[in-house]
Amino acid sequence: MPDAILLDWNMPVMTGIEFLRRLRAEPGGEAPVVVFCTVENDLAHINEALEVGADEYIMKPFDGDIIAAKFAEAGL
Amino acid sequence: MKAEEIALVASLSRARAGLKVAPEKTYLMESRLSPVARREGFDSISALLAAVQERREEPLIWNVVEAMAGGETSFFRDRWPFKHFVDDMLPQLARTRGGAPIRVWSAACATGQEVYSLAMAIEDLAADDPSLKVEFAASDLSRLALERAQSGAYNQFEVQRGLPIRLLAKHFEKEGDNWRLSSAVRQRVRWRRINLIAGIRQIGRFDVVFCRHVLTHMTEDAQKKVLEDLTFVVPEDGYLVLGFKEDIAGLAPAFEPIVGRPGLYRRNPAYQAAAAA
User: Fold this and answer.
1) Domains in chain A, start-ordered, CATH in brackets?
2) What are the helix (H) ranges across A8-42?
3) A6 pairs with which residues across the strands?
């Protein structure tokens, strides 16, 4: 398992939220720090991500060193 | 900008607000003053400053000074002061205040992220401990900054600077392209326009004063005045919180640093003894 995953919501084959749901159900899948990075910037998406087990959430567009900061906030 | 225009801005900023404006930072002046010129209907900064000099109208002068005072801020900036506030200051003050509200002042709040970070923390703690009473006051020199702060509305870039996503989800609602803080948190804060060098001794007692990244932009004389006046505001067992790189050694014997807590200060008992003697 990786230590950290930066995850988009809208992807081919499988959405990010579906990926996260399956990841968290895997043995050891609770371990990686998962940060969403997506254009989906409303509360419904954010709450769903948190419920399924996302650690942090970045809304595009963003500026600066937010990716590093969000992983730091999430404990990495 | 011409040399005399730079000198005018620097001199007004120093005289009115104790601000130290570096003459070589013309880009900073231009980026701060362009919006003022536009807003006030001038077609250039030069036209704005010519009007300031000719008319000597107070509101116009203050528009210039307030723009130069504009501060950078973000939610939970530097992290540690917020942790120390919740973990150390609050429990200690709660023990000694005997149920009276703990009073906190964000002394140059800019667009409000600092005081709202504190207020969100208290909103969450108060849900488990209704006896916890904390009153927040926030002030700034800039009326424009205060208006924005009071609205509690921030754009997507601002809410992603330092604000954990769980707090965004819990305390904010989306309004168009902006995010607006809940009225429950907004209503915890009282707002006032205050010029820190105009005399703050009478504003009342505050157990904790956040005055971060402010003194750094002031002249040494202004820094000394603000710190001296703060001894009338911060009680003996209260706290003064400065930016962690702001060093006031030699400027304010009335405050002493708390070891291991960069930026955190308490009143200096030796200084009180000296004052009483």
Assistant:
1) 4-73 (3.40.50.2300)
2) 16-25
3) A35
Model confidence pLDDT, tens digit, residues B20-79? 998 888 999 999 999 999 999 999 999 999 999 999 999 999 999 999 997 789 999 999
Q: What residue spans of chain B are helical by DSSP H?
A: 3-17, 26-39, 45-55, 58-69, 80-84, 90-97, 113-128, 143-151, 156-159, 165-171, 183-186, 220-230, 269-276
Asked whether the predicted pLDDT for residue A75 surpasses 60, the reply is yes
Cβ-based contacts of B157 with chain A (< 8 Å): 62-63
- CA dist A69 to A41, A72, B217, Å? 18, 5, 26
| Domains of chain B, earliest start first | 3-69 (1.10.155), 80-276 (3.40.50.150)
Listed in sequence order, the DSSP H helices in B110-217 are 113-128, 143-151, 156-159, 165-171, 183-186
Q: What residues in B contact A63, CB-CB < 8 Å? A: 157
Closest Cα to residue B126, out of B188, B189, B198?
B188
The interface predicted TM-score of the complex, written ipTM, equals: 0.94
Q: Does B165 contact A at CB distance below 8 Å?
A: yes
Is B161 near chain A, with CB under 8 Å? yes
Which of these, B212, B216, B64, lies nearest to B144 by C-alpha position?
B64
- Number of DSSP helices (H) and strands (E) in chain B, helices first: 13, 10
User: Whole-angstrom Cα distance, residue B115 to residue B75?
Assistant: 9
Cα of B70 to nearest chain A Cα, Å: 20
pLDDT tens digits along B249-271: 777 688 999 988 989 999 988 87
Question: Measured between CB atoms, which of B160, B161, B169 is closest to A47?
Answer: B169
State the residue for tokens 């209503």.
B187
